[in-house]
Design goal:
The chain is α+β, with helices and mostly antiparallel strands and 173 residues long. The chain has helices spanning 16-27, 37-45, 88-102, 117-125, and strands at residues 8-10, 49-54, 61-67, 71-79, 107-113, 129-138, 142-150. Strands 1-2-3-4-5-7-6 form a 7-stranded mixed sheet, sandwiched between helices.
Length: 173
């Protein structure tokens, strides 16, 4: 099946080992293994975390994002090296961004190694902007570049909501 027809779905418990291995082999190289299967399982089960995968018979890529009230943090994004340069990472991020907008998220944050120029270029094409360097972010060993994406239009003025007059108590008038 072509990768364009490959569907994105919520991660399932049986995906945890594949996600953890891919994290270890593609993201956490040289840093020690933090996203082990048990930690991935916690994310899959967490109602405030969107864990998604792409792949038909096997996990070809995944995205794990924690949602707060107005801020989401994209913790992990990886695509198996055999499936890169086919738009899978972009599809995973766009799927997550659609979910974030639906959830009312205002801003999405992501960090990457300062040396990861490919990731920086990738996120820029999606509209993310540099927000600063976080020294020692990766286990005190390596710094990270933080990037952010605003999901709210900058064209809208700040609005203050006022209750209708019929709702106000006499003392409020």
């Amino acid at each position: 099946m072509s990768t364009s027809a490959t569907e994105i779905r919520l991660a399932r418990i049986e995906d945890a080992n594949a996600i953890a291995r891919m994290s270890r082999d593609t993201i956490e190289t040289g840093l020690g293994w933090s996203w082990r299967p048990q930690r991935v399982l916690v994310s899959i089960r967490d109602p405030n975390t969107l864990s998604s995968v792409i792949g038909d018979q096997r996990v070809q890529g995944f995205c794990i994002t924690q949602f707060g009230d107005e801020i989401a943090h994209l913790s992990l994004l990886a695509v198996d090296s055999r499936f890169r340069r086919r738009g899978l990472g972009r599809r995973l991020v766009n799927w997550m961004l659609t979910s974030a907008r639906t959830a009312g998220i205002a801003t999405v944050h992501v960090e990457m190694r300062t040396t990861n120029l490919a990731a920086r270029a990738f996120y820029r094409t999606l509209g993310f902007e540099d927000a600063g360097v976080v020294a020692g972010y990766y286990r005190g060993v390596e710094s990270a570049l933080r990037m952010v994406l605003s999901l709210r239009s900058r064209d809208f003025p700040e609005v203050t909501w006022e209750p209708p007059l019929a709702w106000r108590r006499p003392a409020d008038s």
